[in-house]
Design a protein that fits this description.
This protein is an all-alpha fold and about 130 residues long. The protein has five helices and no strands. The chain is about 70% helix and about 0% strand.
């Protein structure tokens, strides 16, 4: 099934077996790609050879820190993908965690790991901004 076919489905089909299968396959594909990237980055980190030149050491350490941040971000995304797959298994995928309303196909296509509808996400972001400003 393509994204266009998914979007043309009737509203009554929201999160039926076909749509859940589409998103499960999408998430599993993203998970596989992400695991390959993590593995590749981890191998690159292990290939760094120590240097006796202090300026090289600084460059290598900076690059290593950048790669660690990248790996941390990718690990967080991997966790979100796993959470989304768990929501599919529980029959909760596609429904807002806060309101119980549909998240929407377009939002899920853009961010398959979304657990909040747009309105709930905006509320969460406003609350976080307010807390940071205090």
């Amino acid at each position: 099934m393509t994204e266009q076919e998914l979007l043309r489905m009737p509203e009554a089909a929201y999160m039926d077996a076909t749509q859940l299968g589409f998103f499960r396959d999408l998430l599993l594909s993203q998970r596989t790609e992400l695991q390959a990237r993590i593995s590749s980055e981890f191998e690159l980190m292990q290939q760094f050879e120590p240097s006796s030149d202090p300026s090289d050491l600084g460059t290598v350490e900076e690059q290593r820190q950048w790669q660690l941040r990248l790996l941390e971000r990718e690990k967080k995304l991997l966790d979100k993908i796993d959470e989304a797959l768990e929501r599919i298994a529980r029959g909760e995928y596609g429904w807002c965690r806060d309101t119980g309303e549909p998240i929407g196909l377009k939002r899920l296509l853009l961010r398959p790991t979304a657990a909040l509808c747009i309105e709930a996400k905006e509320r969460q972001e406003r609350k976080e901004r307010h807390i940071r400003e205090d």
